[in-house]
Amino acid sequence: MTLQGFGLGLRPQHFPEILGDDPNAADGVDWFEIISENFIGVGGPPLHNMMAVRERFPMVMHGVSLSIGSTDPLDGNYLKGLKELADLVEPELISDHLCWTGVHGLNMHDLLPLPLTEESAEHVATRVMRVQDVLGRRFMLENTSTYVTFEEDEMTEWEFLSEICRRADCDILLDVNNIYVSGFNHGFSMEAYLDGVPTDRVKQIHLAGHEHNGDYIVDTHDEPVPDYVLDLYAKAVKRFGHVPTMIERDANIPPFAELVRELKGVRLIAERELDMVPA
Ligand SMILES: [Fe+2]
User: Fold this and answer.
1) Which one of 18, 49, 98, 188 is most buried, by most CB atoms within 10 A?
2) Domain with 265 in it: what CATH number?
3) The whole model's pTM is what?
């Protein structure tokens, strides 16, 4: 089965509505994304509730601590846990971020930027191949929001991302909000980013809100997706066609019905751009 439609990040606050008595509570939500780390090695009610949602909806897995760009060896225990969770959940897609989160065994719990060089592209691609070998399936890398660049940079971020995916033969989770945040912070063309990413590798899209401070943006995921990010999403739909798309909300989490409403607006934009007949 191929993933279709529009999704939401699964948040524990919303379990009662999703699993409650109202059969229409999640109308318009085609699938959910879980944060892998929330369920690796976890049992009890959190796992039980997540699997109850899984019985009713397709699911994708999204990780935050693979640290694919670090010079530390890949964490074998983490990969083993990720594979066990994937065997249980049977997700449509699995992803993590194109970043590093620490070195010398330290986890900074932050998605840190990489130098955009041939050397780091080769380093990351080699590690992605190993991850795909362990998982026995394709893997997606997500572009992150960044706040600094390196003097050593040899290419644009979209060239870097595309080159890694070509070398490792992996796919892309394209975060349109992150393109906006990084494009605004660094002054690159957001449209050039979209045009520079290979259409056949983009398998999922993220949308989110952020904190706009006038001359810089911080990626906070605590607000609705702003209109100017939705405008960029419309351009992405034109280029990539229908790609499974979801809203990420990680803080200041509203009632479930509010996110469902917001997601319906996203669907309308995609339908408009694709000239699709509304369902
Ligand atoms: Fe994202």
Assistant:
1) 98
2) 3.20.20.150
3) 0.95
